[in-house]
Amino acid sequence: MRKTRTMGRLSLAAGLVVALFASGCGGPAPSGSDGDSDSGAIRMLTPIFEGADGKQVLEEQLKTFKSSHPKVTVEVDYTSYGKLNEKLTTSIASGRPYDVMLMGIGWIPPFAAKGALAPLDVRRDELGQRFNERVVDPGIYDGKVYGLPIMLDTRFGIYRKDLLAEANLTAPPRNFAELREYGRKLTRRDASGKLTRAGLDILSNDLRQTFLPLMWANGGDLFTADGKPAFDSPAAVGALQFMTDVVRTDRSEDFGFTQPGAASGPPLAQGRAAMMIGHNNVWQSIQESAPDLIKQDKIGFFMINNERLAIFQGGTLATVSAKSSHPGTAKALVDFLAGPGPSLAANQQRGNVPALKELASSEYVTGNKSVQFAMQNLDAAYSEGGVPAWLEIRGDFKAAIESALLGKKTPQQALAELAAKAQVAIDKG
Question: How far apart are CA 410 and CA 406, in angstroms?
Answer without folding.
Answer: 10
